[in-house]
Amino acid sequence: MRKIILVSFVTAFVTGAAAQAQPANPLSASAKRTYDIIKGYITKSAAKMPEENYAFKPTPDVRSFGQIVGHIADANYGFCSAVSGEKPPAGGFAPDAVSIEKTKTSKADLEKALGESFAFCDKVHAGMTDTAGAAMIKFFTGEMAKLSILEFNTHHDFEHYGNLVTYMRLKGIVPPSSEPRTQ
To answer: CA geometry: angle at 182 spanning 177 and 183, to 5°?
Structure first.
């Protein structure tokens, strides 16, 4: 009888612990964790690059470092406003949107705009659930699930982080993802 009680107790404990370990919304929670990683890398990159290098272009036919930062801010607003249904305070994809990439040039202005665009997306991620993320909405690529659009933004951010890394390396700056890890 004691063995049955002990086995029942252990089974209940393990089952309860496993249930607690799983977040209520594993898909949207995982998407937010990945988004937070790239948000950190991009924010740190913008901070590490000196002001005089914000106009740097490896070749004349590509965006400058600062223009990429502005483009990321514009896109953050575009993707996250599509999911939230809220008009972004700046940037975005609307025809009447004022482009951060095309209007901001100073490091301070671009860092501020970038931070505000991430704060806008933070609210969208914070309110996302797996159920809400499955809702289909019209997007410029066609109908997509809301969570897929947030992931599209994260992938877009990673893509342009690759550009920032290259620009930083060309200027002898170690990018955030290559910095030694502190424990």
So the answer is: 130
Q: Which residue type occupies 42?
A: I
d(CA 83, CA 111): 24
Return the number of other C-beta atoms located less than 10 Å from residue 13's C-beta. Answer: 10
* DSSP secondary structure letter of residue 112: H
pLDDT tens for residues 43-61? 999 999 999 999 999 999 9
Spatial neighbors of 102 by CB under 8 A, at least 6 apart, are: 70
Domain boundaries, given as residue ranges, for the chain: 25-177
User: pLDDT tens digit string along 117-167?
Assistant: 999 999 999 999 999 999 999 998 799 999 999 999 999 999 999 999 999
CATH class of 25-177: mainly alpha
Burial grade of 45 (CB within 10 A; 0-12, 13-18, 19 or more): buried
**Could you tell me which residues are beta bridge partners of residue 143?**
138
Whether 80 contacts 91, CB under 8 Å: no
